Inverse folding.
């Protein structure tokens, strides 16, 4: 078994270390983040650094990596400028297009059209959704912090609207991500489908684990 200490990690080639750490962190959700600038120009970018924070109020966090020197962060700029954005699930058969949104297109060129996605505008929301996505979330910026440990931006959003295909929602309110064909990512470039998995009842110290069908 390989064994690396922190000094070993610090001395690794940059891209090798990035691939290693991103992969050992495990599978992460792959979501498309839709934004628009103040002039209504749309932007789309794939993110795998999105995580649940709380349900009451409904909050979802997102990490935006530091800017490499000389580059721009259109998604973050648009979120700060307008205060709104969207989160969109996509199936594995759209992973190729979704991955293309990570390319550094110039400001003024929409990744929606460049990568081959159609925009779904909802009348009540100022940020673009991805047409055909079976799970769409409209988000409002609740808090933005710069993490001094590595200059990464933490974006905390409040869920303002939820659009889910009816056949995905179970009686207890959970959403069947396997039926939705939501995609997860390992590392920075390896996309995978979600299998049905296993569900268990709320764990209690006095009871054995109980499967939920």
């Amino acid at each position: 078994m390989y064994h690396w200490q922190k000094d070993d990690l610090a001395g690794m080639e940059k891209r090798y270390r990035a691939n290693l750490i991103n992969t050992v962190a495990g599978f992460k959700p792959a979501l498309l983040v839709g934004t628009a600038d103040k002039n209504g120009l749309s932007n789309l970018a794939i993110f795998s650094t999105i995580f649940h924070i709380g349900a009451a109020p409904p909050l979802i966090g997102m990490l935006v990596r530091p800017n490499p020197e000389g580059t721009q962060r259109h998604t973050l700029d648009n979120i700060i400028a307008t205060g709104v954005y969207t989160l969109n699930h996509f199936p594995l058969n759209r992973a190729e297009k979704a991955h293309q949104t990570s390319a550094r297109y110039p400001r003024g060129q929409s990744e929606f059209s460049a990568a081959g996605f159609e925009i779904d505008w909802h009348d009540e929301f100022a940020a673009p959704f991805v047409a055909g996505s079976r799970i769409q979330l409209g988000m409002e910026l609740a808090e933005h912090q710069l993490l001094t440990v590595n200059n990464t931006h933490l974006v905390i959003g409040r869920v303002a609207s939820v659009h889910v295909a009816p056949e995905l929602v179970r009686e207890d309110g959970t959403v069947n991500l396997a039926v939705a064909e939501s995609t997860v990512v390992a590392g920075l470039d390896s996309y995978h489908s979600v299998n049905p998995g296993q569900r268990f009842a709320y764990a209690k110290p006095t009871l054995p684990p109980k499967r939920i069908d």
Remarks:
- The chain has a mean pLDDT of 93.
- The two ends are 37 Å apart (CA to CA).
